[in-house]
Design brief:
The complex is a heterodimer of chains A (about 425) and B (about 400). Chain A has helices at about 5-25, 30-50, 70-80, 95-100, 115-120, 135-165, 170-175, 195-225, 240-270, 280-300, 310-315, 315-325, 335-340, 345-360, 365-395, 400-410, 415-425, and strands spanning about 60-65, 85-90, 105-110, 125-130, 180-185. Chain A has about 425 residues and is of the alpha/beta class. Chain A folds into 2 domains: about 5-50 and about 195-395, no CATH class; about 60-175, abc type-2 transporter like fold. In chain A, helix 3 links the parallel strand 1 and strand 2 (about 85-90). Chain A is elongated and about 100 Å long. The two termini of chain A are about 60 Å apart. Chain B has a 4-stranded mixed beta sheet with strand order 2-1-3-4, with helices on both faces. Helices cover about 65% and strands about 10% of the residues of chain B. With about 400 residues, chain B is α/β, with parallel strands linked by helices. Classes of the chains: A alpha/beta (about 425), B alpha/beta (about 400). The interface between A and B is large, with 126 and 128 residues.
């Protein structure tokens, strides 16, 4: 038999570790739930929740003390906007306030009794708008409707006045609006909640489910007094790289499938804009999943028990979502959290996905993010290797560490045996 | 059912001992809440973002257009970034470097002077939500003010006096009152619900883990032995410890929000103490239900985690529930945080008091019946330990 080359042994070890990890993943129900139930169903569920991202016809109440032509026209125009619908006409403010408190309306338009008079006397008339701030969308709708109608009314009243002053129609509109404007919101026309949020949530799901699943397996291995870091025996401490890569490959393979489904099929099902080129999105998913694998394998090495990941890191999911900058703009991040956000692949992955797939930029529009993710991959790979190295050192020096621990416990006066009886249950 | 109080105390003491041996319980509750509190309070400390980068492509380059850019730059919300070509500006908007692009057409000043009505165009990236919406508002305001300025010049030339001019320019104005958050502070709005939602999540996960760990490490018989073979006593003893822990965290959170850093509150802080205590109890009810129905620690924890993450959306404080499809709306009732949110709306936003929130208090109390459904089953499992252990 011919002697094996270094590459041959490397590949054999790599393949063995890879197959072993796949076996572990598929024989663990908890992990299967996280990977496949959560990974595949969560994107669908979130899409269903945010199916109608645009909130239309927010009910508002009107208190019209002026009861004049101008106020009635204003109310009609508010009712005609997409944002608001006039649901109640109230006689006084307390009545309207009660409706708002009961949640029947989320805004109140109040016209003081001198509204029409002031307009006719060419003074500034005021319409007061009260909005329910329990959700910003109520506020936004009432504000947009009030302001759009106000601008329209202003133009209409001005044209009337200037015509009365003897300007021709053409001249009047030249004075009223010297610079007509055209607004464009090309990527998210109606400021739809779902388009911006789903675009960011999708990649957070990829990273977080992978992290929870992988951490569960690492914890399980430690509980069963195996280690996630077992090295090929014949190498005596060498071969850290093939352990990291072999294990990573198993997750990478599964998650390439899940992430491609999340990045390409889910948006197609729910009509989220997909303006990117297929190959460019594929490259993005490739880079992002690779980054996630290394991120997860580095961070999961701190998990000592199977379930601890949920207790310790579940709260990080909403934080990751905010750190993508999809809602609160990255320009406004405090310095420290800006640096903190560089820890997560999602910070760059989500931005790149939004820029390329939803906004339709080419691969250059995500250049910064792709480079950042590549750097992250390299750094996390190094950290994973170090973690495995340390883990092996600890395994080899177990006796020594245990002794040190007992010494400390004796000093602090803690009865470890009694504790162990309760925790690990060899009682009764 | 008679409750043996000395057994309850014994179980509670046993629980404290577990706390000492396994730091994860305190790490998972106190430290995570602490971290989240620090995160959300410092992350949104500005309340509203300012100096959002707005791209301006100035093809006119006149004193008029430069003045426009300077004015836009001087607003609190905006910060102007100049571009020479629309292509470069558009690429930067697409990659999220700037929030929006304004295009000032060439010859705009000349056109305005000659009454030729040049068109001003602007583009907003609505995918970065708050930044996009705010810069949209800012640009819209600025262009309307510019129109007003042009109008003022024309009317001045006609010999009108300043006071009359102002009334001509602005015949109608809107006066907005934000009920419950008069500063339009985005941080107040989010943190008010995010932190209780985090608390709910942590309660569910930690309690499922605590009850599941008895099965996993086979100590459930020891627990029942300590409690005098009564499931009720065992649960009471454990819950005593956890309720004190989580209530303390909850009360401190409410104190912190409404007293120390003065989030606006229309009602009374005492009622919010009631709200957070009810939220703690209701979340504990949900946790016991989940582990009781699925007495396999790993599955129960996965399900508990998936459930509690959904709570953030299902509370309806971002996208209101009524916008969601009907079959999702119904599900929202099953989340304690949803009822907490409605309670909060009544107390903090409207200051409606008991008359406003009593129904939500009842809804939250109903969650306390959930453990009764599974208690018998959980006891059987604790005795037989006949489910897979991890």
């Amino acid at each position: 038999m011919e002697k094996k080359t270094y590459a041959g042994i490397w590949l054999k070890d790599f393949f063995g570790i890879f197959m072993n990890e796949l076996h572990l993943i598929f024989s663990d129900w908890g992990v299967m739930i996280i990977f496949f139930l959560a990974g595949l169903l969560y994107p669908l569920l979130y899409n269903l929740m945010y199916l109608n991202g645009v909130m239309s016809d927010t009910p508002v109440a009107v208190v019209d003390n002026a009861d004049c032509m101008e106020s009635r026209r204003y109310v009609r125009e508010v009712d005609a906007t997409r944002e608001c619908a006039v649901a109640y006409h109230c006689l006084n403010m307390p009545e309207a306030e009660k409706l708002m408190q009961e949640g029947k309306v989320h805004g109140i338009f109040y016209f003081p009794s001198d509204f029409g008079e002031k307009i006719n006397r060419i003074e500034t008339a005021t319409v007061s708008v009260y909005t329910d701030m329990s959700s910003f969308l109520y506020y936004k709708n009432a504000l947009i409707a009030a302001n759009m109608v106000m601008l329209h009314e202003v133009n209409q009243i001005q044209v009337e006045k200037y015509t009365a002053m003897g300007f021709s129609g053409q001249e009047a509109s030249q004075i009223v609006q010297a610079i007509p404007y055209e607004e464009n919101n090309p990527y998210n026309r109606a400021f739809s909640y779902s388009i911006f949020l789903i675009s960011a949530i999708l990649f957070v799901i990829v990273q977080q489910t992978m992290f929870y699943g992988m951490s569960m397996l690492v914890g399980t291995a430690r509980e069963q007094r195996r280690s996630f870091a077992s090295l090929p025996d014949q190498l005596e401490g060498l071969g850290v790289g093939r352990v990291v890569l072999g294990r990573g490959m198993a997750y990478w393979l599964i998650y390439m499938a899940i992430a491609l489904y999340i990045a390409m099929i889910v948006p197609a099902i729910f009509g989220i804009p997909q303006r990117g080129q297929y190959w460019e999105i594929f490259i993005l998913v490739f880079v992002f999943v690779t980054d996630c694998v290394m991120f997860c394998s580095a961070w999961s090495s701190v998990i000592t028990r199977r379930e601890s990941v949920f207790l310790l890191f579940l709260f990080i999911s909403p934080i990751c979502l905010f750190l993508t900058g999809c809602s609160w703009p990255t320009f406004a991040f405090p310095k420290f959290w800006k640096l903190f956000s560089y820890l997560f692949p999602t910070t760059f992955g989500c931005q790149a996905f939004i820029n390329m797939s939803t906004a339709g930029g080419d691969i250059m529009s995500a250049q910064v993010q792709l480079i950042a993710m590549t750097l992250q991959t390299i750094i996390y790979y190094a950290i994973s290797c170090i973690a495995i190295f340390i883990e092996n050192w600890i395994i080899k020096h177990k006796e020594m560490l245990l002794e040190a621990r007992n010494k400390i416990a004796a000093k602090a006066g803690i009865d470890l045996d009694e504790d162990r009886r309760i925790i690990a249950g060899k009682s009764d | 059912m008679a409750v043996a109080w000395h057994n309850v105390r014994a179980v509670a003491r046993r629980e404290l001992r577990i706390f000492r041996q396994r730091p994860i319980y305190l790490l998972g509750s106190v430290v995570t809440v602490l971290f989240c509190t620090v995160f959300y309070l410092t992350f949104f400390k500005d309340g509203l973002p300012h100096d959002l980068p707005i791209g301006v492509v100035d093809f006119d380059n006149s004193s008029f257009s430069r003045n426009f850019s300077q004015q836009l730059d001087a607003t609190q919300l905006g910060k102007v970034v100049k571009y020479n070509s629309f292509k470069a500006a558009n690429e930067d908007m697409q990659s999220g470097k700037i929030t929006s692009v304004c295009v000032i057409p060439s010859g705009m000043y000349a056109d305005v002077s000659a009454n030729r009505r040049p068109t001003f165009t602007f583009y907003v990236n609505g995918l970065y939500f708050v930044g996009g919406a705010l810069s949209y508002k800012d640009i819209l305001m600025m262009i309307n003010m510019t129109n007003g300025a042009v109008q003022r010049e024309v009317l001045r030339a006609k010999g009108m006096n300043e006071a009359t001019i102002m009334n001509h320019i602005q015949p109608v104005q809107v006066d907005v009152h934000q009920i419950g958050n008069q500063y339009t502070n985005y941080g107040y709005y989010l943190t008010n619900i995010l932190l209780p939602a985090i608390l709910e999540m942590i309660i569910i996960v930690v309690l499922i883990y605590s009850l599941g760990a008895e099965l996993k490490y086979g100590t459930s018989k020891h627990l029942l032995h300590t409690s005098g073979n009564s499931m009720l006593t065992a649960l009471l003893g454990k819950l005593l410890v956890y309720t004190i822990l989580f209530s303390a965290i909850g009360l401190i959170l409410v104190m912190l929000l409404y007293d120390w850093i003065h989030f606006p509150i229309n009602g009374s802080i005492w009622n919010m103490f009631v709200a957070i205590l009810l939220l703690v109890l209701a979340s504990e009810g949900v946790a016991i239900l989940i582990i009781g129905l699925l007495p396999i620690p790993r599955l129960a924890l996965s399900i508990g985690a998936l459930y509690s993450v959904l709570g953030f959306s299902m509370s309806g404080f971002t996208l209101p529930i009524e916008v969601m499809p009907p079959y999702i709306q119904g599900l929202a009732v099953a989340f304690p945080i949803r009822h907490y949110f409605l309670f909060y709306t009544q107390e903090v936003i409207f200051g409606a008091g008991f008359a406003g929130w009593w129904q939500e208090a009842i809804h939250l109390l109903l969650f306390l019946f959930l453990p009764l459904v599974v208690m018998h089953r959980l006891k059987k499992v604790y005795i037989l330990q006949n489910f897979p252990k991890d």
